[in-house]
């Protein structure tokens, strides 16, 4: 078990327990002023792991209330937020309640926003149950809701009181959801840990089984994000390196009406953006090839499909676009991201990104 501290602005940070049995940390981290536990949970995670969580919460809080949301990205919505907030109001929850979020990134983003807004702010704990949520969504204080105009367009920064990431909960993940999380692990290796990248290459296909990622490697992927967040908690600059693969990835998701899952879209996005990085910032072609090979070994796609034109409208609404150019976070080599005079993103002309897209369409490797 790893007991880490997560950076949070203006404070000493908060605890992160990571590993098998992390849920046992609940009594140790529970504060006496939290008289009520409001468990906001993904229905599937609740069915699979609710009993273990509820048992521990009942030992901590006088009252435990459960607020469920159905699984799926479309429930990261204003409608679901409002429904849960109204139910909490009907239950007369006051600020002596601690909101406990159990689920994947969807639940954590929504519950975090609920914690930020309910009665102007409740304390909250995050109990991530997907690999993506452990390495990414549970870290860094971002909360969000989607709107028809795009993903994550409403939100707030709200850091939890603690994160308890019990890795035994990941063993029940469907293989596709597990692989989606592996894409983010690979992203963190590219962004800041070349040795982690080598270890993932060595492990390769052994990582296919949900829950099979070695705890020490998982902790390294987590540390990459924590280090970036520590330097730039509110994403004024450096934190945008974590968007590697996501500008193209989000556009793929939007262009396909979210039929391509996030992890697969990010995998293709990383391959395309790495292609652009070879041309734009001198990423060695051999590093791009290693990235494509690793994605393949992990069962993730690396080949683009369909015309680039379908992506164009969705690249335009990207938050990273300024001055007419598409701004991408690009690696200069595995484990190191490009910095330019204007910050941590590099302007790439649409024509150059199209070339990268088309090269990845023609290249060998699996399409999504
Ligand atoms: N806040 C951030 O910094 C941040 C970072 C990255 C991603 N995100 C967000 O995270 C979301 C994606 O998260 P996700 O991939 O975890 O998706 P998700 O929350 O939709 O979970 C994926 C699926 O797994 C199921 N599930 C959850 N835990 C399970 C378990 N232990 N066993 C079996 N099934 C389980 C869920 O019911 C769901 O069907 C996106 O909305 C994305 O925008 C946020
Ligand atoms: Zn992501």
Molecular structure report:
This protein is α/β, with parallel strands linked by helices and 368 residues long. It folds into two domains: 171 residues, Rossmann fold; 188 residues, Dehydroquinate synthase-like - alpha domain (Dehydroquinate synthase-like, alpha domain). Helices cover 43% and strands 19% of the residues. It is built from 13 helices and 14 strands. The longest helix is centred in the C-terminal third of the chain and has 19 residues. The model has no long low-confidence stretch (mean pLDDT 94). The structure holds nicotinamide-adenine-dinucleotide and zinc ion (ZN).
Largest sheet: 7 strands, mixed
List cofactors, ions and other ligands. nicotinamide-adenine-dinucleotide, zinc ion
What share of residues are in beta strands? 15-25%
One letter per element, helices H and strands E, the order comes to: EEHEHEHEHEHEEEHHHHHHHEEEEEH
Integer-rounded radius of gyration: 20 Å
Unreliable residue stretches: none
Given the C-alpha coordinates, what overall shape results? Answer: globular
CATH fold-level name of the largest domain = Dehydroquinate synthase-like, alpha domain
What is the count of DSSP helices, taking H or I runs of 4+ residues? 13
- In total, the number of strands is 14
Distance between the termini: 35 Å
Structural class designation:
alpha/beta
Residue-averaged pLDDT: 94
Write out the CATH superfamily name of the largest domain. Dehydroquinate synthase-like - alpha domain
CATH structural architecture of the largest domain:
Up-down Bundle
CATH top level class name of the largest domain: Mainly Alpha
Helix % is 40-55%
**How are the strands ordered across the major sheet?**
1-2-9-6-5-3-4
Number of domains: 2
